[in-house]
């Protein structure tokens, strides 16, 4: 199963997927990392795993539609089946959605619909909620909306700081994203 991963920043989710031999053995092929931030650390991670990188900057295009069209032109020859968003900090427009309907998956560090959008972990921590979590979902045109594939809770411990809570959320994300992709691979392998 050929995928493209989209990321904008650190890339810990990207690396959790890229380093998994279980996923590779089950047929995952990461054809390209699409990154909108030339300085993002995720690019270094991709180089470590010899995964091709395409940096596509929104500021190089007149509007979001043209920006996504440029991305589509890079994906088409690679015969990408799924797009995995892993810390991709942009709203996807109907241009990309129309090209890959029901085949774009996002991970978000909260129990959606709570704390959608930016700084979800910070806002969940500030809210004092005893339980937060992670959501993996197919995307639609909204911000962190669309059919949910999997949600897991992360309990806030009494002594948690924002950093310790964030650390456990990221650990949960990495494990969850691998499992969701594995389920997808197994389903695809069964369908063939
Ligand atoms: C992750 O927590 C991911 O859920 C979040 O960005 C972080 C990226 O971390 N995504 C969103 O908030 C999307 N709305 P990473 O770069 O270390 O994978």
Task: Describe what you observe in this structure.
By secondary structure, the chain is of the alpha/beta class. It has a single domain, classed as Rossmann fold (3-Layer(aba) Sandwich). The chain has seven helices and seven strands, in the order βααβαβαβαβαββα. Strands 3-2-1-4-5-6-7 form a seven-stranded mixed sheet, with helices on both faces. Helix 1 runs parallel beside helix 7. It is globular and about 50 Å long. The N and C termini lie close together (11 Å). 35% of the residues are buried. The mean pLDDT is 97. Glycinamide ribonucleotide binds next to helix 1 and strand 5.
Entry keywords:
192 residues, alpha/beta, Rossmann fold, seven-stranded mixed β-sheet, 7 strands, 40% helix, binds glycinamide ribonucleotide, phosphoribosylglycinamide formyltransferase activity, Formyl_transf_N
Distance between the termini: 11 Å
Which compounds are bound in this model? Answer: glycinamide ribonucleotide
The CATH superfamily title: Formyl transferase, N-terminal domain
CATH class: Alpha Beta
- The sequence of SSEs as H and E is EHHEHEHEHEHEEH
Sheet with most strands: strand arrangement: 3-2-1-4-5-6-7
Number of helices: 7
Uncertain spans: none
The shape, in one word, is globular
> On the 0-100 scale, what is the average pLDDT?
97
Radius of gyration: 16 Å
Q: Examine the secondary-structure arrangement and name the CATH architecture.
A: 3-Layer(aba) Sandwich
